[in-house]
From TrEMBL:
It comes from the Eukaryota. It is an enzyme of class 3 (hydrolase). PROSITE patterns: SULFATASE_1, SULFATASE_2. GO terms for cellular component: lysosome. Belongs to the sulfatase family. GO terms for molecular function: arylsulfatase activity; metal ion binding; N-sulfoglucosamine-3-sulfatase activity. This is Arylsulfatase G. Its EC number is 3.1.6.1, 3.1.6.15. It is found in: Lysosome. Gene3D superfamilies: 3.30.1120.10, Alkaline Phosphatase, subunit A.
Amino acid sequence: MGTPSPQVVLVLAVVLTGVPCVASQQPNFIIILADDVGWGDLGANWAETKETPHLDALAAEGMRFVDFHSAASTCSPSRASLLTGRLGMRNGVTHNFAITSVGGLPLNETTLAEVLREAGYSTGVIGKWHLGHHGQHHPIFRGFDYYFGIPYSNDMGCTDTPGYNVPPCPPCPRHSAEARVERKGCYTEVALPLFENITIIEQPVNLSSLTGRYAEQAEWFIRQASDSSRPFFLYLALAHMHVPLGVSPPLPPASGTYGASLNEMDALVGRIRQVIDSYGKGNTLLWFTGDNGPWAQKCELAGRPGPFVGGWQRQRGGSSAKQTTWEGGHRVPALAYWPGHIPARRTSSALLSTLDIFPTLVALAGATLPPDRRFDGINVSPVLFGRSDVGHEVLLHPNSGAAGKDGEIETLRLAQYKVFYTTGGAMACDGSTGPAEHHQPPLIFNLNHDVQEQEPLDMASREYQAVLPAVSRAYARALEDIRTDNVSVADYSRDPAAMPCCDTQHVACRCQELEQHAAWRAPRLCL
């Protein structure tokens, strides 16, 4: 199916042998991206949350962002934007990729890892990718020297340790007849694979041990990169808090399964912080955030949005969290920790986004942005260093599955004003959805007085009439900027042959040699 190019082999050899490539004082970067985490899932944000002592300590010793947003409200578009600094209407990724997807993040888009590797960095990704796994879309070919993780969400394949989900899914079948039994929302014909670089090393992956393995591989990567005297960039994309929640023994405490999983994620972050501190405080910028808001239809296994409940939408049915453009769908927790550089105990109310991570890290590394394209993110170094609290004046929120065409911009933020040209609710815990509604003139909420998005401004009011012209101008300028940009188109075609499978002769692509603990032999390459 494919082998690594000589250039990839060479780069991996440089990382593993510790041969320095660039002697510099460039900082190290670690981006920890949680999955489906709610703004209220951090105790530093929401007093009711008690399961995040390590993250709360990071907030106390670093900077907490309270008006920070994912670039989209669902997995693939959000991750594509983080790694390119560009919205889906520019980078082409407007909705999620499937297990049979042929394409991925368009190859003409430049990733953050590619820019930093060119600047002398060792680059690694551990965890969920979800930007294409077939051929050249695999992370090893997108600027990363090392990859350890799952190619898409942890519910997109069966496992022998199915964890907690709503509704629950069965373990992987062991006989053909079992595989043919359909369960709504469950994958029964293919197991979830675990990759190391381009090789499937386990299929199905053991979800119960995945957290510990991610932590071990992250420690290994940090150690190898640090010993090589090269700066490093580690993108750690966690399975937490996406269902199924695979909580390791002992059994969940009184806070329930979600609380136990949240505590497990928190402990992992604490472990990573301890490792980087051991290599010298002040050498590494650690940035923690989420890919989108909580998945409300998962009921008690969904996160906490805090005060961002989308009250207007809730009155009309459906969820106002993940997949929507309500605050609960894209306002996410965010912390930055870099002793000696980022002031401690600082809370920033600047309007920021995961889009800003790309240009900010590029600037801090002394690298340059790719030419011939425009970026939606901005360099927020002045905010990080406490010299400013000014972020975006205008921030765009793309449709993410609940209403409107995927990726299109029909919601935006202008200062404290949230503007909706289209509204809709995703599936809620009770199974309801909110119908798509188009608004012309738009609904406008003043978030300074209504973070719950409960009551839009009266269209006849002086405030509405004063802000509407500025909103209309900002919206028109944004759409024109995208229309005249160098934009990409993602390939969303599907082919069963693109599905990762370590052994097509066995039910659910099960790797028999790993299951039976037989003598090790090199697993097959599956690209």
